[in-house]
Amino acid sequence: MSEENSELEERIIAELENVTDPELGIDIVNLGLVYGADVDSDLNAKITMTLTAMGCPLAETIVSDIKSALSDLQEFGEINEVDVNIVWNPPWDKSKMSRYAKIALGVAD
């Protein structure tokens, strides 16, 4: 991965901090739902993430919010397509949350 792609992937993750889980009210990055953001040589972004529970009724909303959050990067030609890949392995658990998210939700370590 080039340094340029690495910086772009970091910016994508920063933009994803603006996407809030509608049920928990905390962003998906601090919840530990985002496992990765990869940009290929064609500047297509692939977001690998999970959800707090299988069958989450808000999955489509979260995917839509992700695409919306990254639309500025698309508009300025920094990335092209955005693909959101929802995976179940490794499964999510509260240990993946940041300290901020744990404090905000009152979850003990």
Automatic annotation (TrEMBL):
Superkingdom of this protein's organism: Bacteria
Domain MIP18 family-like: 9-78
Pfam families found in the cross-reference section: FeS_assembly_P
InterPro entries: Fe-S_Maturation_MIP18, FSCA_dom_sf, MIP18-like
PANTHER family assigned: FE-S PROTEIN MATURATION AUXILIARY FACTOR YITW (PTHR42831)
Annotated protein name in UniProt: Metal-sulfur cluster assembly factor
